[in-house]
């Protein structure tokens, strides 16, 4: 059981580090997601757990707390119509500059970034390109860097990409697959917070910001969008998740398709 004071304390830590603030109705969800960590750390109450994660010794546990309290659901070629749109768009509007720079903002465990990598390499295999992925969760970023996925998840990858870019694991890696080295070498993952970006460069041609804005209030969504749009090149493309729309109209973005925008002003 978590009491209101403990919930508020932990919720404050979550908000300080991610910008996400849970509604009070999420008390039970927090308790159920964190009760295992209480047992693992042998702490007797959520109040003690809170004291631990705000202390210097609790720094690793803080990162586990953030990981457990954020939602990482993702899969290869999620919302495939957006990838099909991007493929056709790039075929008809060849980039004028290389390397092509793509950012999977909130990359979770890397499936979105690697999906983009396969698509871009297929189109521009003899040109330089780079995909950047960022996420606030250390565990998710580590998994993205490892690029080792359950073979069942490869079903979502169109077969032409699966054949060219995926390698089946053997021995210890039976039941898993990874991506060929060219794909892995051209994808870089770092830990970063969309609200106060520290590692992310400017001038991206394509940015995927999908299934993350929904977790923030309107002010924070605006702040994140400002951070993102200023890193997008003129005439670059921004993709949002299918349940995410711009709450306020922006003069610098033109809607091309639902949830797909083109930057039209610098
Ligand atoms: C549901 S996943 C979306 C993954 C992928 N973009 C997709 O659409 O499949 C949301 C991700 O956002 C990350 N996240 C949450 N708050 C964040 C923040 N403030 N900065 C960066 N990433 C954040 C979470 O760790 C999680 O991995």
From TrEMBL:
A single BP term in Gene Ontology: methylation
Catalytic activity, reaction form: L-glutamyl-[protein] + S-adenosyl-L-methionine = [protein]-L-glutamate 5-O-methyl ester + S-adenosyl-L-homocysteine
Keywords, ordered alphabetically: Methyltransferase, S-adenosyl-L-methionine, Transferase
Single GO MF descriptor: protein-glutamate O-methyltransferase activity
PROSITE patterns listed in its UniProt record: CHER
Chain ranges of the CheR-type methyltransferase domain: 1-266
Transferase keyword on record: yes
Keyword Methyltransferase: yes
Protein name: Chemotaxis protein methyltransferase
Organism: Pseudoalteromonas phenolica
Lineage: Bacteria, Pseudomonadati, Pseudomonadota, Gammaproteobacteria, Alteromonadales
């Amino acid at each position: 059981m978590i009491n209101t004071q403990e919930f508020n304390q932990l919720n404050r830590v979550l908000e300080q580090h991610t910008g996400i603030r849970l509604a009070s109705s999420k008390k039970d969800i927090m308790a159920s997601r964190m009760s295992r960590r209480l047992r693992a750390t042998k702490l007797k109450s959520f109040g003690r757990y809170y004291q631990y994660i705000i202390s210097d010794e609790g720094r690793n546990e803080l990162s586990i707390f953030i990981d457990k309290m954020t939602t990482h659901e993702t899969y290869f070629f999620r919302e495939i119509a957006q990838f099909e749109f991007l493929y056709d768009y790039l075929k008809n509007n060849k980039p004028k500059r290389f390397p092509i720079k793509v950012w999977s903002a909130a990359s979770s465990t890397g499936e979105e970034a690697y999906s983009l990598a396969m698509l871009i390499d297929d189109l521009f295999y003899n040109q330089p390109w780079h995909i950047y992925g960022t996420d606030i969760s250390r565990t998710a970023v580590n998994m993205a860097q490892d690029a080792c996925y359950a073979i069942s998840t490869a079903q979502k990858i169109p077969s032409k990409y699966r054949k060219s870019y995926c390698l089946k694991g053997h021995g210890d890696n039976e039941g898993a697959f990874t991506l060929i080295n060219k794909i892995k070498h051209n994808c870089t993952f770092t830990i970063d917070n969309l609200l106060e970006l520290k590692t992310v460069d400017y001038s991206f041609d394509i940015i995927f910001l999908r299934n993350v804005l929904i977790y923030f209030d309107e002010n924070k969504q605006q702040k994140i969008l400002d951070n993102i749009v200023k890193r997008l090149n003129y005439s670059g493309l921004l993709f949002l998740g299918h349940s995410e729309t711009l709450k306020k109209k922006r003069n610098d973005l033109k809607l091309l398709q639902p949830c797909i925008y083109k930057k039209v002003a610098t």
